[in-house]
Amino acid sequence: MLDVLNLTLMVTLANLARATLALFIIVDPFGNIPVFIGLTEKLEGQQRRRVFRSATLMGFALLVIFAFTGQGLLTFFGISLYSFQIAGGILLLIIAIKLLIEGEWWNPVGFQASLSAVPLAVPLLVGPGAITATILNLQEFGIVITLVAVVAVFLVVWLVLRLVEPVYRFLGKSGSQIIARIMSLFIAAIAVQYIINGITYYLPGP
Prior knowledge:
Layout: H1 2-27, H2 33-40, H3 45-77, H4 81-102, H5 116-125, H6 128-141, H7 143-162, H8 164-202
C-alpha cells in the first residue's frame, strides 16, 4: 500500500513539474525583463510596482478562467484534444520562430489601453501560447495540477516583477535577450511535441 502511495505521489509530482515547466517556459518572465523595463521606464517606482501588480493579477485571473472553462470550450466547439494539440503546437511554433528571428512576436504599435492590461498582462504574460499550454495541461493532467502550475508560475512572475530592476541590472540587456532566445528553442521543442502527439493519434495503427 505504501509503495502504491509513493508511486502515485512521484507520478503526481512529475506531472506537476512538467505542467509548471511548460507554462513557465512559454510565459518566460526573465526573457521579457527588457520589455518590462522599456514599457515602464517613464514611471515612478511606486507607479511601476502598481502596474506590475495589476498585470500579474490580471494574467493570473485569465489563466485560472481558462483552467476552469477549457474543457467546456473544447466540448462546446466539438474540438478533440488531439486537434487542439496540433493547432496549439503550430501556433506555439510560429511564436517561437518569430521570437528567434525577430526577437519579438507582437507589434507594440497601436496599443492604447491600460498598460497593466495591454501589453503587460496580454499578450506578454498571457498570450496565445500560455492559454494553449493551460488548456492542454488541463486535458493531460487535470484541474488540480493545472491550477497549481498556474499559481506556481505566477508566483515566480510576481517575484520577477518585484525585483525587475535589480534582475535587469544583473543580467543586462544582452543577457536577457540570450535567455529569451534559449526559451524560444524550448518553446519550439514543446510545439513540435504537441504536433507529433496530435498527428500520431490520427495515423493508422500497425
